[in-house]
Amino acid sequence: MRVVIAGGHGKIALLLAELLTERGDKVGCLIRTPEQAADIAATGARAVVIDLEHAALGDVAAAIHGYDAVVFAAGAGPGSSAERKYTVDKGGSVLLATAAEQAGVRRFVQISTMGAAAPPAAGSDEIWAAYIDAKTQAEDDLRARELDWTILRPGRLLDVPATGLVTLGPRPLPRGTIPRADVATVLAGILHAPQTAGATLELISGAIPVASAIKNLDNQSVAEGGTTPTD
Predict the structure, then answer these.
(1) ∠178-90-50 over CA atoms, to 5°?
(2) pTM for the predicted model, two decimal places
(3) Mean pLDDT of the chain
(4) What span, in angstroms and rounded, lies between the C-alpha atoms of 65 and 42?
(5) How far is Cα 105 from Cα 12, in angstroms, rounded to an integer?
(6) Helical segments of 65-179, H only
(7) How confident is the model over 140-165, as pLDDT tens digits?
(8) Among 10, 75, 152, 220, fewest CB within 10 Å belongs to which?
(9) For the chain, how long is the longest CA-to-CA vector?
(10) CA separation for the pair 125, 144 (Å, rounded)
C-alpha cells in the first residue's frame, strides 16, 4: 500500500511511518520544513515539504496524487493558540480531505481525540475548548464526504513503550490513556481493515492484542449507519 501521512514529523506519525515501511508499504510524510527530512528518511519514508496551514489546494492534491491512503496526523501541538487549533486541526484536515477527493485517494484515516463531539469539561480553558471544537468540526466535515474514512479517537497520549494491548471499539469508551506507539500500531492495522470505513472508533489501553482488537471489529456494527461495510 502507498500511504501518505500529514503531520509527518509528529511523534505518532514517525512511529507509524517506521511500522509501515517495515512491512513493505511505500510511505510519504508531509512536513513543514526541510530540516525535518532527515528524521523522515530514518524511518524509510519519503519526505514531502508542504505546509497544510498555508498551501494551495492544487499543490496538496499534487503532493498526494498516486497514493492509496491518507492519514491525517497533523496538529497545532501544545502551546499553540486557539486560532491555530482551527487553522491546523480543523483547516488542515478539511484541506487534505478536499485534496484527497481531487486526487482520487479514497481511503482517509483521521486522528481525532476522545472528547470530540461533546462539550468541553466545565472549567476548561479557551485553548482546550478550541481544540475540542476544532476536532469536532474536522470530524463532521469528514463524515459528510464520500471517502472511505475512519476516525480514530485515542485517549490521553503517553510517551511510554507500547504494550500491544488495547481496547478499541465504537464510541463511547470510558476515558483512559494509550501509548503513542500503540496508537501507531492500531493505525497501521486500520489502514488494511476495510470494515472500519465509515466508523468512528475510540482507543485506550486494554487487554486485547492489537491484531485481535481490529479483527474483532469484523463482528461488530462499527459504521455510523449501524452496518459494517463489506467492500
Answers:
(1) 95
(2) 0.92
(3) 93
(4) 23
(5) 22
(6) 82-84, 91-103, 126-143
(7) 999 999 999 999 999 999 999 999 99
(8) 220
(9) 46
(10) 29
Helices and strands, counts by H and E, the chain = 8, 11
DSSP H helical ranges for 119-194: 126-143, 180-191
DSSP run (H or E) holding 212: helix 210-216
pLDDT tens-digit readout, 157-212: 999 999 999 999 997 899 999 999 999 999 999 999 999 999 999 999 999 999 99
Cβ neighbourhood burial of 39 (10 Å; 0-12, 13-18, 19+): middle
Return the C-alpha torsion angle 64, 65, 66, 72, nearest 10.
30
Alpha helices in 4-149 (DSSP H): 11-22, 37-42, 57-64, 82-84, 91-103, 126-143
* Rounded alpha-carbon distances, angstroms, from residue 65 to 14, 62, 98, 120, 219: 21, 5, 12, 37, 34
Cα distances (angstroms) measured from residue 157 to each of 53, 57, 66, 182, 183: 24, 31, 32, 10, 9
**152 DSSP β-pair partners:** 111, 201
Q: How many CB atoms lie within 10 A of CB 218?
A: 11
Full strand arrangement of the beta sheet holding 107-111: 46-49, 26-31, 2-6, 69-72, 107-111, 148-154, 199-205, 165-170, 208-209
